[in-house]
Amino acid sequence: MAEVLKGAPVAAALTEKMAADAAALREAGIVPTLAILRVGARDDDLSYERGAIKRCGQVGVAVKQVVLPADVDSGTFFTALDALNRDEGVHGILMFRPLPSQLDGERARKTLAPEKDVDGCTDGSLAGVFTNTDLGFPPCTAQAAMEILRHYGIDPAGKRVAVIGRSLVIGRPVAMMLMHENATVTICHTRTADVPSITKEADIVIAASGQMECIGADYLSEGQVVIDVGIGWSEEKQKLCGDVRFDEAEPIVAAITPVPGGVGSVTTSVLVSHVVEAAKRA
User: What pLDDT is recorded for position 203?
Assistant: First the structure.
C-alpha cells in the first residue's frame, strides 16, 4: 500500500513558520496585509476566501476585503484595482478570476502589480517562475505541489518527472520549478502520443490534466510518487475525486496525495506565505 502524502502536516509546518515571520514583521511596525478583490459571490470564490481569511487569522496577517457587485462597470473595477496597487499598506492582492464578461480579464491580469500578485497570475510572476527570480510569486497550487515533495523529503534532483497538463496555473509553472530542482521533466498534454508509455517510466507523476479520474493503473508503475492536483465532484460516486483513480493507484505506487486532503489543503497556506514574503520584500 502506498504512503498517503497528506497536506495537513505540510500546511501546519508552513503556518508555524509564517506565524513567526509575521510576528517579527509586526514587531518592526509592519502589518502584513492581504487585500481580497472579489466581484460577485461565486460559491467557489467564497469557499476559498473563507479558507484564506481563516489562515491569515492563524498567522497574524490582516485582511482587507473589497467586494464589488457582479454587474460592476469596468471603470469602477479598475479604479479599485489601481487603488490597491498604490496602497502601501497592502502587501498582497488576491484577485478572484474569472471575472464577469463585462470586465477585461486580460487587462486586469496585466494591471495587477506583480510584486503584490500573491496568486501568481501576472506575466511578471510567471516570468519569475521561468527565470527562477523573485519577481512576483509562483501560482499557489504549483508551489503547493512542490511544498508537499519538500516536506516529505522527496528530492526531484536527477528524477524523471511526468507532468500531465500544460496550463499556466499548474502544468508549465510546476515543470519549471521542478527543473530548477534539477529534475528531468516531460510535459504531457492532449496532443501527446501514448501518454501511459511516458508516465510509466517516470519516478514522479504530477497529475494536473483537469479531467477527473482519467489516470488509472495503466499509467502507473511500482515505486512512483504521484501528486494529484485535480479535484472535481463525481455525481456517480457522490464525492470529490482527483485526476487519478486512487483505488487503482494506491496498491501500485510508493506514495500518493489524497483528494481531498492533499495539494488543495496546502494552497491557502502558500497564498498567505506569499503575503508574508511580500511584506518582507517591501
Answer: 98
User: Are 146 and 240 within one domain?
Assistant: yes
Q: Is residue 273 included in any domain, yes or no?
A: no
pLDDT of residue 200: 98
Question: Does residue 166 contact residue 172 with C-beta atoms inside 8 Å?
Answer: yes
Rounded Cα–Cα distance for residues 181 and 154 (Å) = 11
Within 10 Å of residue 235's Cβ, how many Cβ atoms? 7
Same domain, yes or no, for 104 and 146? no
User: 87 with 150, same domain?
Assistant: no
Give the mean model confidence (pLDDT) for residues 166-188. 97
pLDDT in tens, 28-50: 999 999 999 999 999 989 999 99
* Dist. CA 64–CA 67, nearest whole Å: 10
CA dist., res. 70 & res. 37, Å (int) = 12
The number of beta carbons lying within 10 Å of the beta carbon of residue 281 is 9
C-alpha to C-alpha distance for 45 and 64, rounded to whole angstroms: 16
Residues 161, 201 within the same domain: yes
Instruction: Quote the pLDDT of residue 162.
Output: 98
C-alpha 220/C-alpha 226 separation (Å) is 9
The structural domain count of the chain equals 2
Other Cβ atoms less than 10 A from the Cβ of 66: the count is 17
* Domain coverage including residue 81: 29-115
Q: How confident is the model at residue 85 (pLDDT cuts 50, 70, 90)?
A: very high
Is it the case that residue 1 has pLDDT exceeding 90? no
The residue behind cell 469596468 is 74
In this structure, are 88 and 159 located in the same domain? no
Q: Provide the total of helices (H) and of strands (E) in the chain, helices listed first.
A: 10, 11
Read off φ and ψ for residue 91, nearest 5 degrees: -100, -25
- Indicate yes or no: pTM above 0.90: yes
